[in-house]
Specification:
By secondary structure, the protein is mostly helical. It contains 20 helices and 5 strands. Helix 3 packs antiparallel against helix 4. The protein is flat.
Length: about 450
């Protein structure tokens, strides 16, 4: 006799909450928020749709909006896959996050996006004022916004099971317990990774100064950087990207070879190997600022330890020595973490393989080539790809060691991105540069993975 599977609320098919979740997304495209203020007896009102507010980058409370959108999409996907408990959870998070957005946004007395639009209306009306003359902006949402909240809430309610059954409770616990463990990470992943990525891609197609609302300009930023040879950003992109590629070519081989050499040496279990392991790993615990400033003092041409030890007067922060210093500092800083990965890989290689190689007359070098390296294939693939990605994001070392000196001989692309965005307030152009760098990194990583997969044994 088969047990009867507990059902959801009778008479309510999954199609109904699915349609409500889709209504949430449709209403999002048309819902809006209004702002009203009075300055010098002149009252002005403006409204902005939620999709435009989503990309306004003006308020902390707006961060709850992408959480709502991502969660409702996850709920829709879960319903399509038949995972009703998971869909219930994501719809509940959607309801809470969107409610938090509504409450927090309403409590903001001076929203930057609404103020920008209202100040334009006041100027058009001929009102002369300063920002301190605006006591506050009263914001209100239209009915469709509250319908969105109702759709999220009803989706959650309709997906709720009958809690009286022990079997249902166990089923819900089984389905949702994994999400309870990853929930904190998932929340911060959406807030600090997915949301900035979406905003960054959007900002690349805008003219934006970090303070006012971004103005969509299409592909103008990319046309300027890629086609206008007389423009400063055209030169910056090429110089910064080429210096970044040079640094990757100089540093990655050492970031692989040096940790591998240390791991193999420590694997011999020599006396004091734990002490040396801790010593080699210690630099990876330090911040890049601490590491770079320490080495800057050591390489100082006036009082540095390196010149005193070598009896030299070389200026290590000018070409051709500057790249040597930047690479040496980077390798010293990055060696520890990769070394630990290689030590773990070495410990997993069966000892009988070395014994068989020794019986066949293989020497240390032959054992390393034919036993050690094949046994470390996948850890080396991983560290190689991660090292390339990490070194493409080089920023702190050249910034603090050389800066834009020496006719920008060591200026990498991220230095130009930070300079343009923060100091020159050309954030749209900086976002376009960052997007090009990201696409370049993804292309290189994809080619690496394809090449490694082609060379890997079946």
């Amino acid at each position: 006799m088969t047990a009867k599977v507990p059902e959801r609320r009778q008479g309510i098919p999954t199609l109904v909450p699915l349609l409500l979740a889709l209504c949430f997304l449709i209403l999002f495209m048309f819902a809006s928020v209004s702002g009203t203020t009075t300055v010098k007896e002149t009252t002005v009102e403006t409204s902005i749709r939620l999709p435009a507010l989503f990309f306004s980058l003006s308020s902390t409370s707006i961060l709850f909006m992408p959480v709502s959108i991502v969660c409702i999409l996850c709920a829709i996907f879960a319903m399509i896959k038949g995972q009703k408990n998971v869909a219930m959870m994501f719809s509940f998070v959607t309801f809470l996050s969107f409610l938090a957005f509504l409450l927090l946004f309403r409590n903001e007395s001076m929203n930057a996006t609404l103020y920008g639009r209202i100040s334009t209306l006041l100027k058009d009306a001929g009102v002369k004022f300063k920002k301190r003359d605006v006591d506050g902006i009263a914001s209100s949402f239209d009915p469709m916004t509250y319908l969105m909240l109702a759709c999220a809430g009803l989706t959650f309610v309709l997906l709720m099971p009958h809690w009286k059954s022990d079997t249902v409770r166990r089923e819900v616990k089984k389905d949702l317990l994994p999400y309870a463990y990853i929930a904190p990470h998932l929340f911060f992943f959406i807030i600090f990774f997915i949301t900035p990525a979406v905003y960054g891609v959007y900002a690349a197609f805008t003219k934006w100064d970090l303070f006012n609302e971004p103005v969509f300009v299409g592909f103008d930023n990319f046309k300027t950087m890629l086609l206008d040879s007389g423009n400063t950003y055209y030169r910056q992109l090429r110089n910064g990207l080429w210096n970044t590629i040079k640094f990757v070519l100089y540093s990655v081989p050492f970031c692989i070879a040096v940790p591998l050499t240390l791991a193999v040496a420590l694997n011999t279990k020599c006396r004091g190997n734990k002490f040396f392991q801790a010593l080699y790993y210690f630099p990876s615990l330090l911040s890049i600022t601490t590491v770079t400033l320490s080495w800057r003092y050591m390489f100082s041409p006036d009082y540095g330890v390196v010149n005193k030890f070598l009896g030299s007067t070389a200026n290590w922060f000018t070409p051709p020595y500057s790249w040597i210093v930047i690479v040496a500092v980077t390798v010293w800083w990055c060696t520890g973490g990769t070394m630990v990965i290689y030590q773990s890989a070495l410990a997993s290689i069966p000892r009988d393989q070395y014994e068989a190689a020794a019986v066949d007359g293989a020497g240390p070098w032959a054992e390393f080539v034919h036993v050690t390296l094949p046994g470390m294939r996948y850890p080396m693939m991983y560290t190689f790809v991660m090292s390339v990605v990490a070194q493409f994001n080089i920023y702190g070392q050249p910034l603090m060691l050389t800066g834009f000196a020496n006719q920008e001989a060591n200026a990498v692309l991220l230095m130009y991105i930070q300079e343009n965005a923060v100091k020159k307030q050309v954030a749209g152009m900086s976002a376009a540069m960052a997007l090009i760098l990201g696409i370049f990194i993804m292309a290189v990583s994809f080619m690496q993975l394809r090449l490694m997969k082609a060379n890997s044994p079946d």
